[in-house]
Amino acid sequence: VLQKIASIVPLLSNEVKSRQNLITAGQKIALGNTYLLKGLSDSQANTNLTLTDRLAIILVHLKASLPNYEQALEDFKKVEIDSLPFEYQKDFEDFRTLFTSLVSDFKNLSALGSSLQEIFGGKGTRRYLLVFQNPYEIRPTGGFMGSFAIMDIKDGKILKIDVPPGGSYDLQGQLNEFVEPPSPLLLSNKRWEFQDSNWFPDFPTSADKMLWFYQHARDYTADGVIAINATVLERLLSIIGPIMDTKRGLSLTSENALTTIQQVVEEGPEKKEQKPKQILADLAPQFIEYFQNIQPSAAMPILVSLEEALTQKEIQAYFTDPATEATVQSLGWGGQILPNKEFQDYVLAVNANIQGQKSDAQIKQTIVHQAVVAEDGTITDTVLIRREHTGTAGEKLYGQTNIDFIRLYVPLGSELISAGGFTWPNESSFRAPETYYKKDLTLQQTEKELGFDRESGTRITSEFSKTVFGNWIITEPGETSEVQFTYKLPFKAMVVQNTNPTDGWKNIFITTENKLVRYQLIAQKQSGINSAFESQIVFPNSWEPIWREGENMKTASNGATITDVDLKKDLVWSLIMKSK
Q: By the 8 A CB rule, do 211 and 117 touch?
């Protein structure tokens, strides 16, 4: 493509440089490809090499190719689109965009380098706790952990995978610690146990708690936790096609797998034998065999889907090795609560279905955010959360009352003004922990009580450098519930700073001599639920927008609107205002 375009660029004074840049970029891409293809070839030459050995060879050559790709990118930046023939301008722009994305992916893969060796057991056998989360019963990290597995891996080969047929409850009788659960969980259990350990929306904290429960039940440690939402199974089956459960005579497809497995778990004969998750143990060998013998033609679609699942938090990973964990978090695969700077607006709604069966399969959630800036710079936010239950009353599992403890995470120091719309479960339904149960240290260190709003019954805490408002929302089948929080942010928009507005995003609200104000909103997604999201940013009429950035964001006369957003991943919006 580059050779063709370069060959027809006119040799005029203004176009010569663009032509030269096209040619040199092509040369550098070709050189980079030489290194990369040599690595791929060498990695396949010796059939006795382990997967981690092959990865090491590829990564060495990838690191050699990257400088050439990066130089090609710099050449592309110098090409003036208008100097190209019109019929090739779109092709070139598409190529440049694709190549930029490709180089970014290669950089990420190179950065993973030693971490991949660690993850896949290239430095010795590694043991991982795999937890399977069901978003139909939403919990803070993605769903109720009804099942888990223990996987041993070395040199990229799975040595063993054990799926307890009783699921997460298999650990109940072995747990040697008695601790009080977070207070909302008293609705289902007076003792905190493994199946409820993913209470914290910050995945590293929940994963560490899962490992703690596992160790105190099995007296074993593990090197990390990988949480896999049930929707990943749908993704996988859409690529590899149906699989057969010959034992039960079932064909599992991407369309029916989740409901079929759920039905077997709830109604199958193994439930009477205290082995409701036996179907998962039976299916595991098929998936292991598939991945160990995967065909090259299927590898790329699976990798693309895997990357999307990681970005959308359908898969989250935590590793006890600090360097590996830091790398995973830097790539956005760690499920951690995002930090926000002192002057950034932030919102995260976290749902926890407690005793609501699998009713979240029928819940549609909308988050409506508004930030209003007053003349004195005070910022007041209002967040409305709407939950529509589309299920049919009486339908088994999915048509049950949805009982949800909802927490809203906002900038640290925010002050609650009002809240409403909540419905509490019957007080007699809560279980009292035994007097000899211990207080959990992690819970005490993480959830710090700040207060209690008597009018609405809203609990106010400090968690993960955020202020958190928590309360109950109960939604009956066929009905819609709405709750609302109004609060004042801990900073003002119009603080005079001696900062040039072109210096970058040092602060998001900066008033300079040029009378510029910057606003930035971070909306974080909870794993397991894709909420509809919208927002209004309203400034006084004496201000007008001059720049914006972010998905589905439009400017208005004195601010901006964000509409029709499906919150599948963490998003950021930015706005610059100036005085009229």
A: no
Can you tell me the distance from the alpha carbon of 4 to that of 450, in angstroms, rounded to the nearest whole number? 66
Beta bridge partner(s), residue 413:
none
Give, as one character, the DSSP assignment of residue 432: P
pLDDT score of 508: 47
Give the amino acid at 78: K
Q: What pLDDT, on the 0 to 100 scale, is given for residue 240? A: 86
pTM, two decimal places: 0.88
Rounded distance between C-alpha atoms, residue 124 and residue 138, angstroms? 36
Spatial CA neighbour of 220 closest among 132, 180, 160: 160
Question: Could you give the CA distance from residue 83 to residue 89 in angstroms, rounded to a whole number?
Answer: 9
pLDDT digits (tens, 9 = 90+) for 449-507: 999 999 999 999 999 999 999 999 999 999 999 999 999 999 988 644 444 444 444 44
Computed over its alpha carbons, how large is the radius of gyration of the chain? 27
Element (H, E) at 529: none
Contact 187, 322 (CB under 8 A): no
- pLDDT computed for residue 114 by the predictor: 76
Beta strand residue intervals within 361-432, DSSP E? 363-373, 378-389, 402-411, 415-420
Does the CA dihedral 519-524-529-530 come out positive or negative?
Answer: positive
What residues contact residue 469 under an 8 Å CB cut-off, 6+ apart?
Answer: 407, 408, 410, 416, 419, 458, 459, 460, 485, 487
175-204 mean pLDDT: 97
Taking residue 508's Cβ as centre, other Cβ atoms within 10 Å add up to: 22
Distance CA 229, CA 401 (A): 23
How many Cα neighbours within 13 Å face the side chain of 365? 26
| φ, ψ (nearest 5 deg) of residue 43 | -70, -25
